[in-house]
Amino acid sequence: MELNDWTFTQDDLAHTPSIRDGSSWEKEQRLRQKGISFIVKIGHSLQLLPTTIYAAGLYFHRFYMRQSFRVYHQYDLAGTSLFVAIKEEEDFNSYYPEEIARRLSRLFQECTLVSLKSNDRHKVENLTENIRRWKETIYYHEEILLETLCFDLHLDLPHKYLFEALKRCGATQKHSLLATRIVSDFIRSPLCLLYSSKVLAGVAISQSCHLLQHPLTDRQTSKPWREVLGLEPKLIQEAAETSSLITL
Question: What is the pLDDT of residues 189-202, one digit of tens each?
Answer without folding.
Answer: 899 999 999 999 99
